[in-house]
């Protein structure tokens, strides 16, 4: 079963977008790891003033949040690429309903409709 309004050209374009986005996210993760190594090397076991430590901890917390978000996106990207290979790209993993083309253009890794994504996010926040 395939999305009724997605043509092969659109799907091929989306696949390339997903592959490019995947590579970008991996590069961001690699850069964050390099930054952390530089911070640790710069500290070198020497005492730092509170301002330096505060800056470092704030940057580290920011990097961890970005990495966590990017890891989630990578999982979604990998799933979207699987769906392309399966011939189900553009169909919700939950209901099988078509995901609007506009949503796929905005967020190519979408595997759920907007409503389903909102429901999943609310459920995740509740625990």
UniProtKB/TrEMBL annotation:
Residues 32-57, 85-127 are annotated as: Disordered. A zinc finger (dksA C4-type) spans 92-116. InterPro entries: DnaK_N. Residues 117-127 have a biased composition (Basic and acidic residues). This is DnaK suppressor protein. It comes from Luteibacter jiangsuensis. The lineage of its organism: Bacteria, Pseudomonadati, Pseudomonadota, Gammaproteobacteria, Lysobacterales.
